[in-house]
Task: inverse folding
């Protein structure tokens, strides 16, 4: 996304706070965090372990609630949603990709993806999404018959099959070797550049910031730096 094109905010988080524990033992996992996410962008949230990245991502995805602050998406305030509506938000509006792929071992790639797929008019969204991540030939493979990178791509296809407003990825390459991790980043990049998806990647690997449209750096629960990449580096040639 070019900085001078019109950008539409799809999610806006304002003044989020989250503290774990009390008194001397209190950990300020989020300490006044505000950010916007723009439609069609690749946003990287960088920070070392313990900086609050997962806490933030879980809140954006409606999996956890801040002590205070607001998160607005599509005109709705998450904290105002009833439990049932919040469950629906998690289920329909956001896709999650985790470091651990969380596939169901007894199900094939196709069956794993079908678990979340929305019923679409015409077309087979399950096959389509698996083809999108380059797994057209592995539709009937079980997780144990696939490499780590292939399993992660199934989990990306699974997240996409519900056609979420945004895809939240928490250390998506964390459990993968360098080359495989790179393939995952190429797949995520393609989703943004060729298919207009909105992708947030949370990672402690600083270099991954180079492929993003925007970078947010966190330390000790705070955002310490925000930057825009006018010309993001393609994941293909990026090295770390
Ligand atoms: P990151 O994803 O950047 O590694 P986290 O968001 O997981 O960081 O954690 C931020 C801080 O909050 C850390 O100090 C962590 O130990 C603490 N924390 C996270 N979740 C909990 C929890 N459920 N209970 C207590 N402390 C937690
Ligand atoms: Mg984390």
Result:
């Amino acid at each position: 996304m070019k900085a001078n094109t019109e950008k539409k905010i799809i999610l806006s988080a304002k003044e989020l706070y989250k503290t774990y524990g009390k008194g001397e033992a209190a950990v300020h996992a989020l300490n006044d965090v505000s950010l916007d996410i723009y439609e069609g962008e690749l946003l990287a949230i960088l920070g070392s372990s313990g900086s609050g990245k997962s806490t933030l991502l879980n809140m954006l995805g409606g999996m956890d609630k801040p002590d205070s602050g607001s998160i607005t998406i599509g005109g709705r305030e998450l904290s105002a949603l009833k439990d049932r509506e919040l469950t629906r938000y998690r289920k329909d509006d956001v896709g999650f990709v985790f470091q651990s792929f969380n596939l169901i071992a007894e199900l094939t790639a196709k069956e794993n993806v079908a678990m979340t797929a929305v019923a679409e008019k015409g077309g087979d969204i399950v096959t389509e999404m698996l083809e999108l991540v380059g797994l057209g030939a592995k539709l009937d493979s079980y997780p144990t018959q696939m490499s780590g990178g292939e399993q992660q791509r199934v989990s990306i296809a699974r997240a996409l099959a519900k056609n979420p407003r945004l895809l939240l990825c928490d250390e998506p390459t964390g459990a993968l070797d360098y080359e495989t991790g790179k393939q995952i980043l190429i797949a995520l990049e393609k989703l943004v550049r060729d298919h207009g998806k909105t992708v947030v990647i949370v990672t402690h690997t600083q270099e991954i910031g180079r492929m993003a449209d925007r970078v947010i750096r966190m330390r000790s629960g705070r955002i310490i730096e925000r930057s825009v990449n006018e010309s993001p580096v393609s994941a293909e040639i990026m090295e770390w």
User: Anything to note?
Assistant: The mean pLDDT is 93. DSSP finds six helices and ten strands in the chain.
